[in-house]
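The aim of this short unit is practical: by the end, you should be able to scan a pair of folded records and say something sensible about each. We start with the first protein, listed as its amino acid sequence and then its structure tokens.
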Amino acid sequence: MGRDDDGNEHHLKFTIFFASALLALWHGSATADGPGPSEPLTTLVCRDREDPGVGATLVFDLAGKRLVSSSGVGDTILFNDRNVPVRLSPAAIEWEVAHHTYTLNRATLELDVIGRVYVCQIAKNQL
């Protein structure tokens, strides 16, 4: 085994390790029953693009595929929703409440609430 073979073997081991780690993370998040120490809740603070006095706070358990809670400020229909199932895709998080579909774009963090656009940001985790 030459020097190049050792480098290729190291690269192969790293690739296998990396793929295994990704698979474990994907499988763990897909089968989790609820948030645990390694699966924190995700909190988003959102403001209406046209009227920053209107907004909402959304708390997600992404591993459990749930909107844990929402609370609104001002003239919004986002308020007091609890334990709502969400659909996750690489592009969006979607949920439905009272026959209204809500779509959060995962890339831009823009939330579409029946044609009203909210700009969201991830809140820092608090203990």
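Turning to the second protein, read its sequence before its tokens, just as you did above.
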Amino acid sequence: MLMEIFLSVAFAAAASQKERCAPAEHDRSSDMICVNRNGHCATVTIDGQTTVALTDEAIAARVHAIKHGEDVCWQLAQPVSTKFRANFKAGGLNPKFLGSAEETKVNVYELDDYDPKVDSRLDSLSGVGMQPDGNPNGTWQLHSERPLPTGEYVVVFRLYGTGNWDRQAVLLKLDPKIAPGPADKGTLAGSSEK
């Protein structure tokens, strides 16, 4: 078991965060720049905070030493609600890649729940998902069958648009004492009606 932990730390150290999270090597106008699906072609906002690149190598090594199978390339600076609201828009390196928002799905990993003495890997929580507050281009709220405790999490957003899809794995802290951001019902496609 100790050897597995050592190897996973060694592997995480072998790939720098910059290498792990780099977009595909293509012209910025090409859709191929987005094929790595690591969030460079979407903008995600969670309870009013826009995700930013996770560039700190020490934090990235700690997060990737936990076996969860995700390339965590994004983070939030401040904690958010355990019932946060998020929305996404086409953006980043090739905004036309995604098109208009259609659906958001998540996998949620509770990092504080990982114990290397007993866990070979960290599985995503079951019974957790996103529900729209209205139209797909509005906010989506995180719902969980069981209350989520305060702690550090990786939330992997799978973002589906009319043109394609992208994903962002975000390191963040959840706190049940924080109120979720306001709901935004979005607009109907082709109208200004909410």
